[in-house]
UniProtKB/TrEMBL annotation:
This is 3-ketoacyl-ACP reductase. It comes from the Bacteria. Coiled coil: none annotated. InterPro entries: NAD(P)-bd_dom_sf, Sc_DH/Rdtase_CS, SDR, SDR_fam. PANTHER family: 3-OXOACYL-(ACYL-CARRIER-PROTEIN) REDUCTASE, 3-OXOACYL-[ACYL-CARRIER-PROTEIN] REDUCTASE FABG. NCBIfam families: PRK07231.1.
Length: 252
């Protein structure tokens, strides 16, 4: 088992990539703290892990709220004694709204979940990692964080910021044995589309202009295997990188 006795927090674990990561981590021996804003789906993931013989704990959290982040990490430590891996997976789309049409409300909501939540969870675990001189942070970004038009202005900016934070943390805390990496998925079959409501026609047309070059969509399990690699000792010398997982879409 690649993660035997490790304690891993996974946000957005109620569905999609977060669920697949939580299930695979548990299968590989981790004690999983599964977090999501939806209590029913979070508990269902924990039940699935436990029925398969794994260990897991459900913590309902809105990553846009500082108090929820505090409670998430504190609960993990109270239950399992420490945290070894943080997977910042929770995220939302932005209706493909371009810069000319973006509202403060949309901008702030997307940034709060996709960027500020990542920062707060990272800030919370770093003292734990520093004290024991080890720890892994994995940020689920997007090819939208590497290229200019795979989404609207807010989502694109939020994922670019998350990648910048990834690199900053990786370099500044490497001397403590802490690694911080990111995954940049392309088209993956998840329910993040449920966070899209009344998409902006102009923005969506621009964002979809390269869609015909996408060879195929991936599945959440394929992203989970990358998260396993980054969370395990197999990637001990990998720090501050972004692994693009898009089936070759952005290689054209």
């Amino acid at each position: 088992m690649k993660l035997k006795d490790k304690v891993a927090i996974v946000t957005g674990a109620g569905s999609g990539m977060g669920k697949s990561i939580a299930l695979l981590y548990a299968k590989e021996g981790a004690k999983v703290v599964a977090s999501d804003i939806n209590p029913e789906t979070t508990q269902a993931v924990v039940k699935e892990i436990e029925e398969a013989g794994g260990q897991a704990l459900a913590v309902v959290a809105n990553v846009a709220k500082e108090e929820d982040i505090q409670n998430l990490v504190d609960t993990a430590v109270d239950e399992y004694g420490t945290v070894d891996i943080l997977v910042n997976n929770a995220g939302i789309m932005d209706n493909f709204v371009p810069a000319a049409n973006v509202t403060d409300e949309l901008w702030e909501r997307v940034m709060a979940i996709n960027t500020t939540g990542v920062m707060r969870a990272t800030r919370k675990v770093l003292p734990i990692f520093q004290e024991k001189k080890s720890g892994v942070i994995i940020n689920n970004a997007s090819i939208g964080g590497l290229y200019g038009s795979r989404a609207g202005a807010a989502y694109t900016a939020s994922k670019h910021a998350a990648i910048g934070l990834t690199k900053n943390v990786a370099f500044q805390y490497a001397e403590y044995g802490i690694r911080c990496n990111a995954i940049a998925p392309g088209g993956v079959e998840t329910n993040i589309g449920s966070t899209i409501d009344n998409p902006d026609p102009f923005g969506m047309k621009k964002a979809m202009s390269g869609a015909e070059f996408n060879p195929k969509n991936g599945n959440p399990e394929e992203i989970a295997t990358i998260a396993l690699f980054l969370g395990s000792d197999d990637s001990n010398f990998v720090n501050g990188v972004v692994i693009t997982a898009d089936g070759g879409w952005t290689a054209y």
